């Protein structure tokens, strides 16, 4: 199953996504992977990474860091089982691909969606967390507006591919596509 989860900052989307993957994956994790996309570039990012690691503690996740080049990621099959994967988060991956020297630049949406297709071929369950950054009504500089446009294009591509698309609002999941989820 492929589920995309979106929501604003602090909405509860991370906790919801982890819990959903655990329910989909079952009691005995054989091959559970967390794809971390946040590049630790400052003290705040290090704090956020630590908070998320603590949230995942004792949940059976193996962490794989992937800042760019999602399509090149090869995931292991263990005991004949494809992995169940949580990718967090798409907004970081998009920023990495768009802004970093080793990223895809203007090809970011195409490269990331190709990477998602590659992940889908390798996974039992895939949950992708993304951010809702489009409702603040603020006009940003051209580069940020281009980033937001790319993230919107990627989110639309995720929605088309997803079996379910969920927005988490104040820790309440609102199923926009698919469902019911376990």
Describe the structure.
This protein is of the alpha/beta class and 182 residues long. The protein is 40% helix and 21% strand. The protein has five helices and seven strands. It has helices spanning 13-25, 43-56, 90-99, 108-122, 142-161; strands spanning 2-7, 32-36, 61-65, 84-88, 125-129, 164-169, 172-177. It has a seven-stranded mixed beta sheet, sandwiched between helices. α2 links the parallel β2 and β3 (61-65). α4 (108-122) packs parallel to α5 (142-161). The N and C termini lie close together (11 Å). 36% of the residues are buried. The model has no long low-confidence stretch (mean pLDDT 93).
Essential attributes:
seven-stranded mixed β-sheet; P-loop_NTPase; adenosylcobinamide kinase activity; 182 residues; 21% strand; alpha/beta
